[in-house]
C-alpha cells in the first residue's frame, strides 16, 4: 500500500482532482477541489519526482476519480480519458501551476462518448 504522504500518492491525488473537475460542473465542488489541488501542488514542490511513472499514476488517478458515486454528477459530457497523462511532470510541478488551465487540458484531451 502506498504511503498517503508519498510524492506518488500526492501526485495521484492531484491528478484525480483534475479529472473530477473535468467531469463535474458543480461550482461548489470545483471551488473546494481548486483549493485542494493548490495544496497538493504545494506539497509536490521540491520533491524528486523523476523516478515516478506518470502514465501509471495517471491511470490510477482516473480510476479513483471515476468512482460510481460521482457518476450521477458527471454533467460536463461523457468523457473517456486518454491512456497517457495530458500534462507533463514539469507542468504539474511548475511554480505558476494553473489549476483551471490544467482542468481544461484534461477535459480537452478526453474523447467524448
TrEMBL record:
This is Uncharacterized protein. It comes from Methylobacterium frigidaeris.
